[in-house]
Specification:
mainly alpha, 4 helices
Length: 83
């Protein structure tokens, strides 16, 4: 369970709203990590580009998508994530 509540859609801050709209266009959704980091809008300026490079093929990440997925699953298991 998150210790901070997620920022929901249509936030009052235009910077957060813009970041959410961009995430929706790029990923088809707003990740819960982004909803948590939205408590600090300054972090969002860096978070979305980082996530995009790490998760999308051909944008600079040297790992193929299968290896990235395995790494995410392994890290989640090591951290005992509930999802």
């Amino acid at each position: 369970m998150a210790r901070l509540p997620f920022i929901e859609d249509n936030p009052d801050n235009p910077n957060i709203q813009n970041a959410f709209q961009t995430a929706e266009k790029i990923n088809g959704r707003v990740a819960n990590s982004m909803r948590t980091f939205a408590h600090s809008p300054e972090i969002l300026k860096f978070l979305l580009p980082l996530q995009t490079v790490l998760q999308k093929n051909g944008l600079g990440c040297k790992l193929d998508s299968k290896t990235r997925a395995l790494a995410m699953i392994k890290v989640s298991a090591l951290n005992e994530c509930q999802y």
